[in-house]
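Example noted here:
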Amino acid sequence: MTTLLPDAAIVTGASRSIGRAIAERLARDGRPVVVGYAHRADEAAVTVRAIAEFGGRAVAVGGDVADGDTAARLFDAADAEFGGAAVLVANAGVSVLGPIATYDDDAYDRVFDASARGTFRCLRAAAARLADHGRVVTVSSTAVATATPGMGVYLAAKAAVETMTRVAAKELAPRGITVNAVAPGLVRSEMFADGKTAEELAAIARSAPRTRLGEITEIADAVSLLTAPDASWISGQVIRVNGGVA
């Protein structure tokens, strides 16, 4: 078993929803957290306050992970505030849905910048600056495995995330760093609920194997497992956290 130093976790897209749940869970695990956010400074501050309320430590750092210097600034904050980072959770992403035949070029750029480019830049920074025997978790989607119509561009970006995850796991293995992805499915998140009525959400829940939607805290639980010291032999995997949907 490898014992990690009590260094910080960096969580991107942590101002709300799944990202906030992950940040709070890792803080409860005893890690100080760098709360990364792109635009919602007020909501990132809510995440920091929530962590402080139960005795955790956190600092918010703004910036789009698709921009060149944001990943470096996240690691700079971890170094300055907490003595370095042992965990990176690359959660930031944008969902713009629609059929490939009518998909907008600007939407394509937004989706790939946030998920694929942003994850790439976070992985590149982690390769240089994450502590040895650290943990990296990226975020994909269960729908990559089901090729859901109307999600082609979004899922293509997430498929890129999964491929980079598997390759990075091999490249960082000599330093004892594990790299895995979680792939949520049918989760009661803001992104999933966007544009759906309560009746539509209820129907989706009834169609699931366990006749309910997952909770964002259950995604955070999976990330906690993958970032734990006892997870040292799990690497290069895509863990589909979906209640048995696929």
